[in-house]
Design a protein that fits this description.
The protein is mainly alpha-helical and about 200 residues long. The chain has 9 helices and 3 strands. InterPro entries: 6PGD_dom2, RedAm-like_C.
């Protein structure tokens, strides 16, 4: 049972090594900070041989709610990294936005409470994720409420403001790049979710 963080491929390689030595390998991704392990709301992703996971599941429940993903030993780390992708990017955006405001002489305390409301308000915009998932998988990006062109203009404004105030521009540059490439690919009048087509294609 490996609960350390690594890439999905590293977990698969470790599972192959374990199998060659007569051992089974189950990967886990702990999704809460250390102080809350074993507490309410704690959960852990697992992947690897189902029978081995099932054998140890009662003990694993002490750590947090076990969420078994399948036999591929890389899946637990894939889900772990994907969730942390959302988490780390959100934290960087929060700090970047705060730097943008404080560069104008505004105290962080006057900005951060409202900024956190913006973060927690995202589920109101996209719901529980199931409808968004269906649209992404179907390649449907209706632009009736917002478009990549409109959101891209905002991304440009954020980058220009960041440049003018002297704060770091790496994050807004990356965001603007997503919109620029989405528009260039002919998705400008589609919803912001059309960025997914560019991101998943790696172009």
């Amino acid at each position: 049972m490996n609960l350390s963080s690594d890439t999905p491929d590293a977990s698969r390689e470790a599972a192959e090594w374990a199998a060659k030595h007569g051992a089974a390998f189950v990967t886990g991704g702990v999704m809460v900070p250390a102080p809350t392990v074993g507490g309410r709301g704690a959960y852990v992703f697992y992947s690897g041989p189902r029978d081995v996971f099932a054998l140890h599941e009662p003990a694993l429940k002490v750590i947090g709610e076990p969420k078994y993903l399948g036999g591929d030993p890389g899946l637990a780390q894939l889900f772990y990294q994907a969730h942390l992708d959302v988490f780390l990017t959100a934290l960087s955006s929060l700090l970047h936005a705060t730097a943008l405001v404080t560069a104008a002489g505004v105290p962080a305390a006057e900005f951060l409470p409202g900024a956190l409301e913006t973060l927690t308000g995202i589920p109101t915009m996209i719901g529980d994720g199931l409808q968004l998932a269906r649209e992404l998988e179907a390649g449907e990006h209706p632009g009736d409420l917002s478009t990549a062109l409109m959101m891209g203009a905002t991304a440009d404004h954020i980058l220009r403001t960041s440049t003018q105030t002297g704060v770091d521009i790496e994050l807004p540059t990356a965001v603007k790049s997503h919109y620029d490439r989405t528009i260039a690919a002919g998705h400008g009048t589609k919803n912001w979710t059309a960025l997914y087509e560019v991101i998943k294609a790696g172009r």
